[in-house]
């Protein structure tokens, strides 16, 4: 399956947190592959996993099984390392999203510093694209980073919505929203394809869904959190409905 731009705003459900619960006991449940199947039945347009270097949640085996069973689009988030590039080229996800990774962080904290790592990232992107996999880079809503992303020929940028999502005061939230919107526009004008995600939930997603340049939203924590109370199928379906309503597409 290829990653195609479409008329609708799409949702990709990140199932890392299902694996986080499983790894708390190093056991067999809950199974992230089951979560992926249910998410697809509930109408998701894609499944995302982050195979971290320390394998703290998703395991290599999960990735192999997901590649077998995912019928929508499989997005692999990963650090831009030699090891991970090798795994991606072998597994062939539908999209690779390069993210910065620090061992001590709880989740991905900031976007990639594309400016500082320009030549290195250019090489990794070229290698992965050369195997037929489109590449996305996770970056802050910063025009200089986006410009550099364009120069190193990334297919997509995933604009980091975390600062918008974490803003507690309305003024700050509005400022951060404008940064995200302007970044999406800027990237699109350069000819880049645009995704967005991080920290999005059932309240703050609606405004982001209204940004017409965005093709897909990547959401994990809020969906898995809600699923504890309403079930996974309903949690995914409700997010999908909100995105559809918010996008007006
Ligand atoms: N996008 C990227 C690049 C991420 O690293 C994550 C977290 O794994 C997400 C989106 C999803 O963020 P959240 O779990 O806060 O919805």
Report on the structure:
The protein is 48% helix and 16% strand. It has 249 residues and is an alpha/beta fold. It has an 8-stranded parallel beta barrel with strand order 1-2-3-4-5-6-7-8, surrounded by 8 helices. Helix 4 (82-91) links the parallel strand 3 and strand 4 (95-98). Helix 2 (32-41) crosses helix 11 and helix 6 (143-151) packs parallel to helix 8. It is globular, with a radius of gyration of 17 Å. The structure holds pyridoxine-5'-phosphate. Pyridoxine-5'-phosphate binds at residues 14, 16, 50, 77, 97, 99, 107-108, 138, 158, 197-200, 218-222. The site of pyridoxine-5'-phosphate has 19 residues, from strand 8 and helix 10.
Compressed to H and E, one letter per element, the order equals EHHEHEHEHEHEHHEHEHH
Helix proportion = 40-55%
- What is the spatial order of strands in the main beta sheet? 1-2-3-4-5-6-7-8
Q: Regions with pLDDT < 50 over 5+ consecutive residues?
A: none
Q: Termini distance?
A: 23 Å
The largest sheet, given as strand count, sense and whether it forms a barrel, is: 8 strands, parallel, barrel
> How many DSSP helices?
11
Which structural class do you get from the secondary structure elements?
A: alpha/beta
Percent of residues in beta strands?
15-25%
pLDDT averaged residue by residue: 95
Rg (CA only): 17 Å
Bound molecules: pyridoxine-5'-phosphate
Shape: globular
Number of strands: 8
Task: Annotate the secondary structure layout.
Layout lengths: L9 E5 L1 H10 L6 H10 L4 E5 L9 H10 L4 E5 L3 H10 L3 E4 L19 H13 L4 E5 L3 H9 L4 E5 L1 H5 L3 H21 L2 E5 L7 H5 L4 E6 L1 H10 L1 H16 L2
Parallel strand pairs: 1-2, 1-8, 2-3, 3-4, 4-5, 5-6, 6-7, 7-8
Helix pairs in contact: 2-3, 2-11, 6-8, 10-11
Bound molecules: pyridoxine-5'-phosphate.
The site of pyridoxine-5'-phosphate has 19 residues, from strand 8 and helix 10.
């Amino acid at each position: 399956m290829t990653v195609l731009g479409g008329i609708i705003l799409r949702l990709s459900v990140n199932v890392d947190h299902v694996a986080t619960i499983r790894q708390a006991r190093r056991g067999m449940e809950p199974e992230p592959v089951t979560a992926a199947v249910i998410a697809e039945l509930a109408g998701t347009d894609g499944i995302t996993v982050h195979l971290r270097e320390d394998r703290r949640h998703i395991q290599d085996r999960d990735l192999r099984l997901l590649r077998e069973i995912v019928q929508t689009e499989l997005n692999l988030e990963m650090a831009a390392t030699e090891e991970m590039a090798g795994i991606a080229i072998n597994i062939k996800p539908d999209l690779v999203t390069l993210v910065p990774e620090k061992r001590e962080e709880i989740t991905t904290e900031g976007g990639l510093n594309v400016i500082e790592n320009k030549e290195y990232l250019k090489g990794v992107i070229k290698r992965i694209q050369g195997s037929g996999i489109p590449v996305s880079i996770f970056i802050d809503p910063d025009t200089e980073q986006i410009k550099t992303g364009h120069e190193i020929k990334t297919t997509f940028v995933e604009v980091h919505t975390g600062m918008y999502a974490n803003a507690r005061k309305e003024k700050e939230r509005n400022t951060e929203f404008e940064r995200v919107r302007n970044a999406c526009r800027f990237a699109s004008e350069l000819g880049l394809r645009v995704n967005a995600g991080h920290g999005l939930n059932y309240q703050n997603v609606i405004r982001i869904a209204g940004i017409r340049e965005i093709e897909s939203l990547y959401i994990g924590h809020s969906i898995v959190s809600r699923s504890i109370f309403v079930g996974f199928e309903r949690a995914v379906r409700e997010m999908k409905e909100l995105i559809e309503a918010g996008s007006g597409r």
